[in-house]
Specification:
With 174 residues, the chain is of the alpha+beta class. The chain contains four helices and eight strands. It has helices at residues 2-26, 52-64, 85-95, 105-108, and strands spanning 38-40, 43-45, 113-114, 120-124, 129-133, 136-139, 152-154, 164-167. A hairpin with a 4-residue loop joins strand 4 (120-124) and strand 5. Helix 2 crosses helix 3. The longest helix has 25 residues, at 2-26. Residues 12-31 have low confidence and may be disordered.
């Protein structure tokens, strides 16, 4: 009877240890988590191990950060005086060769693949679109780098309630 209890205790311990290991892999900083970009002032710095398209997206976003918010900006021309929410997301994806033409927020609700991804996730509804690239939020509202309008970075996440969650797909590295 003692041997049976000992085996049962060993099995329970193995199950708990396995569950804890799985949780650690999925938790931020775990083996499956993408390294986070960091902010240096108002510019994002890509993690060294980021895939090429992620580095290109971060560079593109840095290029247009702090441009003014212009409704429809970025939709008629890739290079624009200012950008709206979906125009700034479109520009970033285009510069990484992932998008051929600008989409509005509603268009992003159906773009790519559904769900979150390791490196890039897009949030869209009928009125707004934003994205998270390597753990930093790229958005035209609720950014924390000064009192201004237009696209910018934030380390703070916002509620995704009411948004469709999409990602570029196409690669296991995403």
């Amino acid at each position: 009877m003692a041997a049976t209890r000992s085996r049962e205790t060993g099995r329970r311990f193995a199950l708990v240890a396995g569950a804890l290991a799985a949780i650690a892999l999925l938790a931020p900083g775990g083996t499956n988590a993408a390294p986070h970009a960091r902010l240096a002032g108002s510019r994002a710095i890509a993690p060294a191990g980021a895939p090429r398209p992620v580095k290109e997206m971060i560079a593109a976003a840095n290029h247009i950060r702090h441009k003014p918010y212009v409704w429809g900006g970025g939709h008629a021309h890739w290079r624009s005086h200012g950008y709206d929410c979906s125009g700034s997301v479109s520009y970033v994806l285009h510069r990484a060769s992932l998008l051929d033409y600008p989409l509005d927020a509603t268009g992003f609700m159906h773009w790519g693949k559904g769900g979150h991804s390791k490196w890039v996730t897009i949030y869209a509804n009928h009125e707004h679109a934003y994205m998270v690239i390597a753990g930093l939020r790229w958005d035209t509202s609720m950014v924390d780098d000064g009192d201004r309008s237009g696209p910018g970075w934030s380390e703070a996440m916002r509620s995704s309630k009411g948004f469709r969650v999409r990602h570029p797909g196409g690669s296991r590295r995403w």
